[in-house]
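Quick one: Histidinol-phosphate aminotransferase from Paradesertivirga mongoliensis, structure tokens please.
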Amino acid sequence: MEFNLNNLLRENIKNLVPYSSARDEFKGEASVYLDANENSYGSPIATPFNRYPDPLQFAVKKRISEIKGVPPRNIFLGNGSDEAIDILFRAFCRPGIDNVITVPPTYGMYEVSANINDVAIKKVPLLPDYQLNLDEIAAAIDENTKLIFICSPNNPTANSINRDDIEAILANFNGLVVIDEAYINYSRQKTFIQELTEYSNLVVLQTLSKAWGLAGLRIGMAFASEEIIEIFNRVKPPYNINQASQQLALEALNNIDQVNAWIKETIYEREKLVSTLASLPTVVKIFPSDANFILVKTTDAKGIYNYLVERGIIVRDRSKVELCEGSLRITVGTPTENEKLIEALKSFAG
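--- reply ---
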């Protein structure tokens, strides 16, 4: 059966008439705006924010388009990637009927969003080497499976998922395959964005929170076919990205050289950190990383975590997560932060 987007959509979304805002109805510049019931006098702060922002964030999408090589019509911007994830559930999954597949250990918001939307999750754990179990994924798919979530590089395991395996799923699954590339800037693998014309059932998630250093602005990106992006725009709130975030994102997107320099330094520090940690007696194994963090299997994850907390150093204890037993997830910090971490771990070991 060939992929058909219309077959995936919920009936209420097919017939949805989106809210039409004042800024949807008028585009362009004018000297007098009396259409949106804004405060015409301004804002009680230095920068005026009394006008509603562009509901489709065209200036930001245009700049992202230049950087990513994707037309603006194939880009959705959300309040973090979490908004895009939630919209996928609301647009394509019928509560209490449909299901999605996740491949744990993976990013926790897929499950949270499924639970909020009353959509069943079929969990197909990764293999011991943190790669996809293709046979079990194929066995889990039924007529009500709408989405498959694949995080690559994966959180919390840090590795990239085998590209051929992902392409096998894209080619054989009639639902949407969502590839979460939050950490792609740190990876040796190329993005799946370049495959959008090849696979009409592909949705790629990225973010400005990691390599771009804008976690506080909450701007996530989804890249997909024009038809899928149109559905995102139909379902989203009218002004989901505020004006301040749009302005600051545009400013950041013009500083690509700084971001690239930070990426290189982060990768250098990551390899240095891996090398140093490997010599510690409390470290059992360090898993391969294509991200800005590493997963470290230790002799005493909880003890080390608490010891670090007492010294003002916070890492993530992932020891209760399936296939991550005894492991800590450690973000690559600045050289100074990494040195403090190493010294603390050495004193724990001593």
